[in-house]
Amino acid sequence: MGRVTSDTSATHAAALSAPEPAGQPPAWQRRLRRFGYAGRPQADARTRLVAPFPEPDRRPWAWLGAGPDLAGRLARWSGWLGPLLVTLCAGVLTFWNLGSPRKVIFDETYYPKDAWSLLHYGYEGTWAKDANDALLAHPPKILLSPEHSYVVHPPMGKWLIALGEWAFGMNPFGWRFMTALLGTLSVLLVCRIGRRLMRSTALGCLAGALLAVDGLHFVMSRTALLDLIVMFWVLAGFGCLLLDRDRTRARLAAALPAGPGAGQVRPDDAVGDRLRLGWRPWRIAAGLCLGLSAATKWNGLYFLAAFALMSVLWDVGARRTAGARRPFRAAVLRDALPAFASTVVVALATYLASWTGWIVTKGGYYRDWATTPEGRGSSWSWLPDWLRSLWHYQSEVYAFHTGLTTPHTYMSNPWSWLVLGRPVSYFYEDPKAGQDGCTAAEGCAREVLALGTPLLWWAACFALLYVLWRWLFRRDWRAGAIACGVAAGYLPWFLYQERTIFLFYAVVFVPFLCLALAMMIGAIIGPPGASERRRTIGAVGAGVLVLLIVWNFIYFYPLYTGLPIPKSAWHNRMWFDSWV
């Protein structure tokens, strides 16, 4: 018996040490194929570096009666016409009756007033206790004094809110204008980003349309809070990095020598290992955008770290595809330092510039800390006073954020976010019949509830599993990029289990959920080479899912806008006890 074991072990060891047959993938890859793993695509090096956009389809325009020339032009313009149409619809939806409810709702008691103070003093002053009622009075009163107040978020987002107040006045429409504008523009960004990611105008427009009908994004677009502003700049930074990726990979492709086939290029180790990628303005623009996100709220820093690392890994992949023998070493030597300067250094400079109002004035909180006995005793006294004062302010803010454990009625654990376990009520009133537009004898309820469109979020849970599978087993960088966006906005909150946190923080990664769902829907429809029956069944299934999501948004629309509805209708929309 022992002999059999010995022989078997020797035979097994010999099998493991035997070389793989020529042309066969390694054994670990063959084992993973049962889960759907696929190796790197074997295509022309140029195509692998920069996937071409498919030729736009003229048939839909021809079916609408356009002539051949007009149909061709419209097809070429569809990459912008489609996203702009989706954005127009989103804008009408967002700006419609934007000033309602004419109240200071939830944390609008902080940021619009801080924004007005920045506009007039350059720093956050102090408001009287009854300032909210005075702002909504006829005529309104501004009960603001120049005495500084302690605030715990950087000023960039409040400066943007101040632009709307400067243009339209210190009223609900004025202080919500900029978040509504950025929320609308974020739909355009998602359409264009989705088109570039998936090389499909239809799927890009679908991702943007999904964002337009997400309840959490919609509510945050109509409320003067900071989180949607963070989301906008994160999304803009992500888009800039995508443009940088395509631009630099095209530069590598252009430098590769011609291959044996007509019109083909072949990988070359000299290009992959040693080519300098030169001036990369889109990466600098990404650093600027990510700096603006961190200058609005500090959770933008997680996206800065994640996206900067992702960008370098994209360079590693590009150099490997171009033929580099040591792609990681080449990327570290030639790309990592410029990437750090273009993203991290630019972002930090942007963050510092956002404090200009506080720096150039003298009334801000802790502005003169460096001149106090405590500040003069610092070992860093050789630095400018304003810089030491600012650093002290930042350290105090950090201590506040990490120690914030005060219970709140609507606080929630991030474990419950994706399934919408505990939404946040921004505003609630229960007018009687005949009051505030209520026509129901039983009385009405008016609420603004920060709740994502349930069917969209629950479908996005499956979409996240799909993109993770596609990234790990199909080696699809697009799925990895989407997963990175979700992870950077979601996972860091698990580090603060004791902190007071809310579901609406999740709005920053909602665009990536919509991109994941659009990618999954594209898979449901099926690839272009699939049979007509397969594509038809897939299109019907995908269409039903999208229509159900749109219906779900319409169903909850009164809860997103504060419209009065009968109390029984309000109760019907409270699907779970935790939503009340």
How would you characterize this protein structure?
The protein is mostly helical and 580 residues long. The chain is 60% helix and 3% strand. The protein is built from 24 helices and five strands. It has helices spanning 2-17, 27-32, 45-49, 59-63, 68-95, 111-121, 131-135, 156-168, 172-198, 201-212, 215-221, 227-255, 269-274, 281-294, 300-322, 327-353, 356-360, 373-376, 385-402, 454-473, 477-490, 510-525, 532-561, 567-573, and strands at 126-127, 144-145, 424-429, 444-450, 565-566. Strands 3-4-5 form a three-stranded antiparallel sheet. A two-stranded antiparallel sheet has the order 1-2. The model is unreliable at 1-20 (pLDDT under 50).
**Separation of the first and last Cα atoms:** 69 Å
* Sheet having the most strands: 3 strands, antiparallel
Give start-end ranges of low-pLDDT stretches: 1-20
Helix-residue proportion? 55-70%
Number of helices: 24
Roughly what is the average pLDDT, rounded to an integer?
90
Spatial shape:
globular
Secondary-structure element series: HHHHHHEHEHHHHHHHHHHHHEEHHHHEH
Overall radius of gyration: 27 Å
**Tally of DSSP β-strands:** 5
Short characterization:
The chain has 580 residues and is mainly alpha-helical.
